[in-house]
Design brief:
The complex is a heterodimer of chains A (97) and B (175). Chain A has 97 residues and is mainly beta. Helix content of chain A is 0%, strand content 51%. Chain A is elongated, with a radius of gyration of 16 Å. Chain B has a four-stranded antiparallel beta sheet with strand order 1-2-8-7, with no helix packed on it. Classes of the chains: A mainly beta (97), B mainly beta (175).
């Protein structure tokens, strides 16, 4: 796949964490769902979008064995990716007998 | 055996080598001018036919944008504050708050009826087409002098005790 003179940009990203999930927010202005490609492969989360002459790309490393179900939503040019934590990584309340 | 903390973004926030652009964290092809920015990209261009304004405003809704044209003045006010979702803590933070507040003098009058603004997935474009030049108004020259205007009585005192107290404006008429 040739680049066709695409200007590549790194999208600004915020990452948040709760007990159950990680949430990643990426600013992708002028990007539509059809331009966007999110893949999880070999321990890497890759965000990639090409709109016209501008391309956004960013890759994150995931720990080995991550196999949660990743979900994503795009609204007003902001992509939200939700990565659920496996049970072992969630805080566990220990009951005291 | 220690269980590693589950943290998919260890390389982004925690690694001491983050600043040295760990290769798979940042697209190597992006030049320095294409790294995440502090201020939104803003463009204002004009040619003979129209003025165009372009602003990258992801996360902004149409209601948050103030755009106005007054005579030759175009003004824009937009601001954006990314929020932390409820119940979450911050692991890594790059998307900055910003505010754009500008007033620009246009190079020509614009046709306000044909002004179009679009907000497409956080990308604002505004097009201001140039106004048609109005027809020049011809001025006829008349012979003679401008007719004199008769001063109008603006104020009178209704009742006067004596002539000495009354203040009446004398109206002079000229033929």
């Amino acid at each position: 796949m040739t680049d066709q003179n695409i200007k590549w940009r790194v999208p600004a990203v915020d990452i948040f964490e709760s007990d159950d999930n990680f949430k990643l927010f990426a600013d992708l202005p002028r990007v539509h769902k059809s331009d966007l490609e999110i893949t999880v492969h070999k321990g890497k989360l890759k965000l990639r979008a090409v709109t016209g002459e501008v391309g956004f790309e960013r890759v994150f490393s995931l720990p080995e064995g991550f196999d949660g179900e990743v979900s994503a939503a795009l609204d007003a040019g902001v992509l939200t990716v939700t990565l659920p934590k496996p049970a072992a990584a969630r805080p566990q309340r220990v009951a005291i007998a | 055996m220690l269980i590693n903390r589950f943290d998919p973004f260890w390389g982004v926030a925690r690694s001491p080598f983050f600043r040295r652009a760990v290769p798979d964290q940042v697209a190597l092809r992006a030049g320095r001018e294409n790294r995440p920015r502090h201020a939104p990209r803003f463009g204002l261009t004009a040619d003979d036919r129209e003025v165009r304004l372009e602003l990258e405003a992801p996360g902004v809704s149409a209601d948050d944008i103030e755009l106005a044209v007054h005579g030759l003045q175009l003004s824009i006010v937009v601001s954006r504050e990314p929020q932390v979702p409820e119940g979450f803590s911050v692991v890594h933070h790059e998307r900055r708050s910003w505010r754009v507040e500008r007033s620009v003098e246009l190079p020509y009058r614009v046709n306000l009826e044909n002004v179009v603004a679009y907000l497409d997935e956080g990308y604002l474009t505004l097009t201001l087409p140039r106004a048609e030049d109005e027809e020049a108004v011809k001025i006829m020259v008349k012979r003679g002098a401008e007719p004199q205007r008769i001063p109008q009585v603006v104020d009178t005192v209704e009742e006067a005790e004596t002539d000495a107290d009354a203040s009446v404006v004398e109206v002079k008429e000229e033929v």
